[in-house]
Amino acid sequence: MEVANSIDDENQRRDRLPERRPTTRIHMPSTAPSVTVIGLGPMGQAITQALLNAGTAVTVWNRTPRKADGMAALGAKRAETVAEALDANDVAILSLTHYQAMYDVLSHAAGHLSGKTIVNLSSDSPQKTRAGARWVLDHGGSFLTGAFMSQGDDITHPLSYVFYSGPDEVFRAVMDLLIPLSPAEYLGADYGLAQLYYQGLLTIFHPFVLAYEQALATIGQSGGDVDRFTPYARRFMDSIKDFMDYFTAEAKNGGWGDVASLRMMHAGAQHVIDTSNDAGVAPPLTHTVQDVYARAIAASTEARPVRSYELISEVELSSGKRP
């Protein structure tokens, strides 16, 4: 009787258990993702370390073996030749000085490009980028252009990101592999777009560096305190964002400014030049700015102002033709 009661109790307990459902088997990759990195300058080393930290198996090659040895000490596999580096993985990331370096390096192993995806994160012009893409495609490979917008070589900085351009299907195929390298900004199928946007931002950055150094030198050599000045400069840069929206809208309509505005900007540039000269600071950048305003004023009439944007945009300006 006790046994029967025990069996009944067990049956009731089982009835209260949730119904078992068939188990869905989740397929897990048997191996870690893998990639090749060619070029181990500061950025190439940062790329390699980010990939290794993400658990990616990395094969590296560099023209000078010492840098490859340093990455091997962190867990990367060192390839002895470019051909070996390409054969190691389906995807190879290039981090070189320019696109000519890509030809210099890969031409020795061009027969190993077939079926490979080359992600070139080197800097160059959009036209040279497109030509580089065609060269890889002609050798049977796929190509993706990339351009780092990073704080120096700190690709882990929260403001860092990467422009990519090339065929959508190529980007999607390697997107997960590239995630450790900073957030991705995919711009479109044109191979030149990533470098176009990258060089556009550097067009702002290069004169900014010189202009800020000129400002610091002028402040410092005129008895001011550069540490006190810097917070004001940072606040001023915040206001520049609004100017960008304004000038973008004006550029779509041919540019900003009438003749009176151009004369005001020309005079303002002279005040900067005078202040710099008084401090014993060379102001070459401001002279260049003033020259553009002077040429715009000279080419203008009251009825038809020639805006600085027009002068900058006209390729034939170098031949002396009026826009």
Automatic annotation (TrEMBL):
GO terms for molecular function: DNA binding; NADP binding; nucleosome binding; oxidoreductase activity. One of its GO terms (cellular component) is chromatin. InterPro entries: 6PGD_dom2, 6PGDH_NADP-bd, HIBADH-related_NP60_sf, NAD(P)-bd_dom_sf, RedAm-like_C. Residues 1-33 are annotated as: Disordered. Residues 35-178 form the 6-phosphogluconate dehydrogenase NADP-binding domain. Residues 10-22 have a biased composition (Basic and acidic residues). Signal peptide: none annotated. Residues 190-305 form the NADPH-dependent reductive aminase-like C-terminal domain. It holds the Pfam family RedAm-like_C. GO terms for biological process: transcription elongation-coupled chromatin remodeling. PANTHER family: CYTOKINE-LIKE NUCLEAR FACTOR N-PAC (PTHR43580:SF2), OXIDOREDUCTASE GLYR1-RELATED (PTHR43580). This is Putative dehydrogenase. The lineage of its organism: Bacteria, Bacillati, Actinomycetota, Actinomycetes, Mycobacteriales.
